[in-house]
């Protein structure tokens, strides 16, 4: 950081001192967020690349504009509000059709395919079935794919490993490897099949750093890792997310800490669509107005806050959230 | 920036008169340096010394008080750029904008919305604190509108660049400590005179930081230091840049010329798209908007923005706590299970979210557990058998139940034996270790 300030003149001409123009406090950082590319061909996207604080295009290299992806699920989602069924209709019944529809209709930067159906406490779809779905989705779209699991660490390791193999060459991002399964996911995803892996930690700079180091020790290249440093909906302990990201950004840029220079992806929709504000029915909360609008505001607010704190990619569920965040990004950093 | 004891000592009379209550001027100076007492406790201190000290110890950013009585709020006074460095002190205030070109219907509807969106969230009253009244050319209607909006009892922000109109408008609300967002490089002298005369906070409009800087200098030179800065209303990128530059110059650069709060018109920047407005408002909650102006308020917007604001403006050194009491989920009945966890807000949010998601009726008891996480509270002796027993006996939950089942957090399974002795008639069940497993657990339990 260098502070350019005018030196006060010893002259007695007070007027001259007083009318000295404003001097910018420039901030230059020695570190830079690494670039990580997901997908292949024309539609491939690159995350990161900035050496300035988020959205601070005026300070230096702002790198890649943050990317926004839409979430779809491998089976008809059981806990999404009705608005989505109205929006998507039968398209939701087949993930490949759904993905194609999303690509053609809403043109997000990437698609996040979430394997909720793999959950052993849910539909418990087999690894083979999940692979089949992933392959079909991949064939039907040209957008980069982010593959998310069912939040069951063991099952997720299995499906990530199998999908990484089946989609070799597609350069997908596996969301995510955690402390418990990073060896399987890291080794299969990044080492064996050259995919990208998101290292997930829970809202703590030290945990994020530790997992990145573990992944590196496993032999995974830093260029193949992005971070998922945790998320919370606005109003639900979001300050921890924001401050964790601030600290990571300052360490990565200011202290040039290479173990924290991976770009950050934040699955906003995984959190915001399950809080009371987004799911309480209009009958239960008659004052609160449209359930769909509530959900979009929660998602947009959390997504914008995350981007301002350091997310290089966010995942949203509602196409209107995608539209608003894209407009916001285009206007604020171009 | 702070002065040392020795530096303060040099400002004192050095007579050791003891009138301040301390044996020597040196002892007194050390106390002042430590912030234990203020310099004015010395009856012989010179005005010059007082002022020197005030300047040396003043925060880089001024705190401005706006509004009167119940509507009174403070903005500014920040000392850091990031909340983890210390804490952010003055929460972002929200405003809804009115104008003389709006139909009565629109005006009535916005007024009704401001009254309607007023609720409690974790011991904080959530509502819009202020209203912007913009002059768009119809003077008579403008003045009538101001009169009409008085009934809301909110902080007035008059957006008017016509000095003559502003004069009449200010006369209507000058006793309420309003803000006049009206000065630009063409009218600055007249606006300063008007603001000084009526003792109101003056808002400065400029398109570039250089313009705004020059306006602040002019105002300060004229002796008016109650200011708020408007970093732009036309371009999203430029406005963001200006907002950051202004705050950074004050906090990092130590240049107090920019040590004033900001007002950001998210409504005008968002091109009529309410979701874009929410994205911008959220950004300015984090990045230095002291007042954020919205087109209108409604619950969908408020729930997100006020929740985010509540989070960001918590002190990182003090964990956010929820009120100890019995919380009800999904209309619990006399045979619904009773869950218990700690009053640390983050724990409460996660647990309550998962109970909501399960759709299973349940009671949730929150005792006073010191605002710590489950294991920490337990280790500190604030979440043990006695605390839980007392909570159950005192909250009256037993009278509402025919089937007494208590679900403990899995992490304190060790309390099961104690509680079975302490609470005869209760079935003590060990719940899951992670909140995420609650929906499955509850649905299998019911």
Give structural attributes:
heterodimer; A: 334 residues; alpha/beta; TIM Barrel; 8-stranded parallel beta sheet; two-stranded antiparallel ribbon; 12 helices; 41% helix; globular; B: 446 residues; 3-methyladenine DNA Glycosylase II, Chain A, domain 3; Rossmann fold; 5-stranded mixed beta sheet; 17 helices; iron ion binding (chain B); AcylCoA_decarb/synth_gsu (chain B); iron-sulfur (chain B); Dihydropteroate_synth-like_sf (chain B)
Map the helices and strands.
The complex is a heterodimer of chains A (334) and B (446).
Chain A: H1 14-18, E1 36-38, E2 45-47, E3 67-73, H2 82-88, H3 95-106, E4 110-114, H4 127-140, E5 145-148, H5 153-166, E6 173-177, H6 182-192, E7 196-200, H7 205-217, E8 225-228, H8 238-254, E9 265-266, H9 268-272, H10 276-279, H11 291-309, E10 313-316, H12 319-333
Parallel strand pairs in A: 3-4, 3-10, 4-5, 5-6, 6-7, 7-8, 9-10
Antiparallel strand pairs in A: 1-2
Helix pairs in contact in A: 3-4, 4-5, 5-6, 8-11, 11-12
Chain B: H1 5-11, H2 25-33, H3 47-57, E1 63-66, E2 73-76, E3 93-99, H4 104-116, E4 118-121, E5 124-127, E6 130-134, H5 139-149, E7 155-159, H6 163-173, E8 179-183, H7 188-198, E9 201-205, H8 209-221, E10 227-230, H9 236-251, E11 263-264, H10 266-269, H11 274-286, E12 291-294, H12 299-312, E13 326-329, E14 338-340, H13 345-358, E15 362-365, H14 374-379, H15 385-395, E16 405-408, H16 416-422, E17 427-430, H17 438-445
Parallel strand pairs in B: 3-6, 3-12, 6-7, 7-8, 8-9, 9-10, 11-12, 14-15, 14-16, 16-17
Antiparallel strand pairs in B: 1-2, 4-5, 13-15
Helix pairs in contact in B: 1-2, 5-6, 6-7, 11-12, 13-17, 15-16
Pfam families (chain B): CdhD, FeS
GO molecular function, one term (chain B): iron ion binding
Protein name (chain B): Acetyl-CoA decarbonylase/synthase complex subunit gamma
């Amino acid at each position: 950081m260098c502070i350019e300030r005018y030196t006060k003149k010893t002259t007695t001409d007070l007027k001259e001192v007083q009318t000295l123009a404003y001097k910018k406090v420039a901030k230059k950082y020695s570190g830079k967020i690494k670039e990580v590319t997901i997908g292949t061909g024309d539609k491939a996207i690159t995350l990161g690349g900035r050496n300035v604080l988020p959205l601070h295009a005026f300070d230096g290299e702002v790198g890649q504009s943050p990317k926004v992806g839409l979430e779809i699920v491998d089976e008809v989602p059981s806990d999404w509000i009705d608005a989505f069924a109205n929006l998507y209709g039968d398209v939701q019944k087949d993930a490949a059709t759904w993905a194609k529809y999303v690509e053609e209709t809403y043109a997000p930067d990437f698609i996040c395919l979430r394997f909720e159906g793999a959950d052993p406490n849910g539909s418990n779809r087999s690894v083979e079935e999940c692979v089949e779905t992933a392959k079909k989705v991949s064939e039907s779209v040209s957008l980069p794919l982010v593959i998310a699991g069912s939040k069951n660490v063991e099952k997720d390791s299995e499906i990530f490993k199998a999908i990484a193999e089946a989609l070799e060459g597609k350069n997908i991002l596996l969301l995510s490897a955690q402390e418990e399964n990073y060896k399987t996911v890291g080794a299969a995803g990044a080492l064996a099949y050259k995919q990208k892996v998101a290292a997930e930690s829970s809202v703590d700079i030290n945990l994020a750093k530790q997992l990145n180091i573990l992944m590196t020790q496993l032999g995974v290249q830093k260029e193949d890792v992005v971070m998922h440093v945790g998320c919370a909906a606005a109003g639900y302990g979001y300050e921890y997310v924001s401050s964790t990201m601030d600290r990571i950004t300052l360490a990565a840029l200011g202290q040039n800490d290479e173990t924290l220079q991976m770009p950050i992806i934040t699955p906003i929709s995984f959190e915001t669509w399950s809080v009371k504000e987004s799911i309480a029915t209009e009958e239960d909360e008659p004052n609160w107005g449209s359930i769909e609008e509530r959900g979009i505001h929660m998602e947009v607010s959390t997504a914008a806050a995350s981007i301002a704190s350091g997310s290089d990619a966010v995942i949203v569920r509602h196409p209107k959230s995608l539209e608003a965040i894209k407009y916001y990004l285009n206007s604020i950093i171009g | 920036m702070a002065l040392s004891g020795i530096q303060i000592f040099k400002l004192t009379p050095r007579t050791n008169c003891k009138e301040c209550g301390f044996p020597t001027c040196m002892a007194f100076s050390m106390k002042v340096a430590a912030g234990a007492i203020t310099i004015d406790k010395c009856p012989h201190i010179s005005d010059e010394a007082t002022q020197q000290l005030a300047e040396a110890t003043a925060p880089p950013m001024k705190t401005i008080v706006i509004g009167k009585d119940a509507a009174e709020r403070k903005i500014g006074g920040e000392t850091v750029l990031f909340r983890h460095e210390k804490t952010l002190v003055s929460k972002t205030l929200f405003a809804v904008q009115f104008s003389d070109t709006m139909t009565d219907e629109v005006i009535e509807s916005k007024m009704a919305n401001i009254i309607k969106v007023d609720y409690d969230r974790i011991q904080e009253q959530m509502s819009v604190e202020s209203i912007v009244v913009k002059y768009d050319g119809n003077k008579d209607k403008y003045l009538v509108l101001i009169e009409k909006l008085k009934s809301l009892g909110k902080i007035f922000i008059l957006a008017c660049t016509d000095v003559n109109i502003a004069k009449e408008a200010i006369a209507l609300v000058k006793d309420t400590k309003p803000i006049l967002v009206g000065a630009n490089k063409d009218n600055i002298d007249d606006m300063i005179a008007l603001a000084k005369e009526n003792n109101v906070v003056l808002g400065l409009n400029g398109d570039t930081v250089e313009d705004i800087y020059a306006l602040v200098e002019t105002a300060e030179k004229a002796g008016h230091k109650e200011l708020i800065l408007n970093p732009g209303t036309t371009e999203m990128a430029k406005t963001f840049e200006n907002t950051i530059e202004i705050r950074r110059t004050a906090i990092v650069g130590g240049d107090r010329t920019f040590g004033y709060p900001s007002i950001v018109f998210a409504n005008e920047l968002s091109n009529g798209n309410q979701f874009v407005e929410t994205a911008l408002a959220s950004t300015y909650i984090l990045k230095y908007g002291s007042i954020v102006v919205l087109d209108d308020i409604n619950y969908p917007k408020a729930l997100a923005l006020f929740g985010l604001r509540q989070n960001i403006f918590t002190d990182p050194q003090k964990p956010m706590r929820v009120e100890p009491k019995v919380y009800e989920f999904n209309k619990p009945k006399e045979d619904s299970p009773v869950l218990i966890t700690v009053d640390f807000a983050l724990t409460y949010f996660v647990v309550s979210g998962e109970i909501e998601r399960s759709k299973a009726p349940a009671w949730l008891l929150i005792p006073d557990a010191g605002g710590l996480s489950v294991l920490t509270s337990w280790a500190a002796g604030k979440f043990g058998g006695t605390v839980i027993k007392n909570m159950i006996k005192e909250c009256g939950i037993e009278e509402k139940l025919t089937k007494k089942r208590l679900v403990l957090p899995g992490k304190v399974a060790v309390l099961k034996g104690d509680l079975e002795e302490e609470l005869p008639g209760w079935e003590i069940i060990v719940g899951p270790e992670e909140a995420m497993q609650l929906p499955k657990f509850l649905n299998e339990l019911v």
